[in-house]
Design brief:
single chain, alpha/beta, Rossmann fold, 8-stranded mixed β-sheet, two-stranded antiparallel sheet, 10 strands, binds NADPH dihydro-nicotinamide-adenine-dinucleotide phosphate, binds Protochlorophyllide, EC 1.3.1.33, NAD(P)-bd_dom_sf
């Protein structure tokens, strides 16, 4: 029971990070070192794009043996400065088949992380994106388009988890931070970049949004309190403002940071399915979500109490056996981006003990089409698309 007490969200408080993310909201390239990196990496990419032939969509012709080969794909990964995003960026870049656009809120952190992970110069581009600001999302899309790259795959990976927060913090647009960053920022990004994915001549274009087991109440992990639940979405419809309504999607009066995260993951999984229903047939884009395993060592748990951070990895490794390393989780996400056998759309992928992928079942709420439609319509209003 001592273990359970340590692992359950604690009432102990930690310093709040508050509006930090909103404070760094700005355009892409802020400082000299950032500019240098960006320019260097873009110019390499520009050459790669320039060498691709125009006449054969989705293929380039090797000068040596005139055998048709697939051109290098371009994948945008949000939150690629740590954890799963970084591991997937590395895994994809290392294949040589992908150029990775690391869409990150902290440019220097991302640059250090890419270097530290041993990613080859020229295999990636870092662009500023702060999902806690809708202006920043729009700015990112402009910057990306100006860079002239095609978009072949988009991975909505970034997230924050605030299990010990006693009160909500808010995005630049005034929405509760966990749902604002994890869902609303990605919702706008995905909607804007759909056009770009549609224009791509790449044979398999994919839009991937991270889900999680803890947002699915059809699992043991999803039944650990506080349980995810969107209710009738009245809090979201009210704008998640806190002071003049609720900061929680279901309209609860009290704020619960752990539940807000789990709720945001339901939103992620519902959004993927609604995208599939609305756009798959028309565009051929593959929409997918996944639970990559419990990556208990990542920065996601940075705001949790130290005892949790100490016990969580061994607990997941030896007791639940749900633990997965950052490197392994990166390979799993990379598979969903590029594996030719994972082209099915509308799927929530998971992996078994032997690391083989399978189509997993979502909970009733996380697969409710009526809720997905309602979520879509409210989210459109909140991000200024309707
Ligand atoms: P990390 O904390 O390591 O990575 C999260 C990333 O999101 C970081 O790069 C972080 O940037 C970025 N980020 C946070 N806020 C913003 C913002 N406002 N704008 C842009 N980027 C932002 O966590 P994980 O790697 O564990 O999580 C990645 C994904 O995997 C999440 O969607 C999570 O829900 C999902 N997941 C994780 C599981 C796990 O066990 N860890 C299990 C199931 C799903 P910065 O580096 O600047 O902080
Ligand atoms: Mg959970 C049965 C297996 C299992 C799995 C796969 C997870 C994954 N967890 C499991 C079980 C349990 N957890 C049990 C029995 C407990 C009670 C001791 C427990 C507790 C627990 C806590 C307190 N677990 C947690 C927390 C968190 O703060 C994490 C969380 O909810 O983050 C939102 C978490 C997680 N457990 C997982 C996974 C993958 C997480 C975190 C990441 C996520 O959902 O994105």
């Amino acid at each position: 029971m001592a273990l359970q007490a340590a692992l359950l969200p604690s009432a102990l408080s930690v310093p709040k990070k508050g509006h930090l993310a909103a404070a760094v909201k700005d355009t892409a390239f802020l400082t000299v070192p950032q500019k240098k990196l960006q320019v260097a990496s873009l110019s390499v990419r520009a050459q790669a794009v320039a060498t691709a032939p125009v006449a054969t969509p989705g293929a380039s012709t090797s000068t040596k043996d005139s055998k048709k080969t697939l051109r290098q794909g371009v994948v945008v990964i949000t939150g690629a400065s740590s954890g799963l995003g970084l591991a997937a960026a590395k895994a994809l870049a290392e294949t040589g088949k992908w150029h990775v656009v690391m869409a990150c809120r902290d440019f220097l952190k991302a640059a250090k992380a890419a270097k530290g992970a041993g990613m080859a110069e020229g295999s990636y581009t870092i662009m500023h994106l702060d999902l806690a600001s809708l202006d920043s999302v729009r700015q990112f899309v402009d910057n990306f388009r100006r860079a002239g790259m095609p978009l072949d795959s988009l991975v909505c990976n970034a997230a924050i988890y605030r299990p010990t927060a006693r009160s909500p913090t808010f995005t630049a647009d005034g929405y509760e931070m966990s749902v604002g960053v994890n869902h609303l920022g990605h919702f706008l990004l995905a909607r804007l970049l759909l056009d770009d994915l549609q224009k791509s001549d790449y044979p398999s274009r994919r839009l991937i949004i991270l889900g999680s087991i803890t947002g699915n109440t059809n699992t043991l992990a999803g039944n650990i309190p506080p349980k995810a639940g969107l209710g009738d979405l009245r809090g979201l419809a009210g704008g998640l403002r806190g002071q003049n309504g609720s900061a929680m999607i279901d309209g609860s009066e009290s704020f619960d940071g752990a539940k807000a995260y789990k709720d945001s993951k339901i939103c992620n999984m519902l959004t993927m399915q609604e995208l599939h229903r609305r756009y798959h047939e028309e565009t051929g884009i593959t929409f997918a979500s996944l639970y990559p395993g419990c990556i208990a060592t990542t920065g996601l748990f940075r705001e949790h109490i130290p005892l949790f951070r100490l016990l969580f990895p061994p607990f997941q490794k030896f007791i639940t056996k749900g633990f997965v390393s950052e490197a392994e989780s990166g390979k799993r996400l990379a598979q969903v981006v590029s594996d030719p056998s994972l082209t099915k759309s509308g799927v929530y992928w998971s992996w078994n003990k032997d690391s083989a992928s399978f189509e997993n079942q979502l909970s009733q709420e996380a697969s409710d089409p009526e809720k997905a439609r309602k979520l879509w319509e409210i989210s459109e209003k909140l991000v200024g698309l309707a």
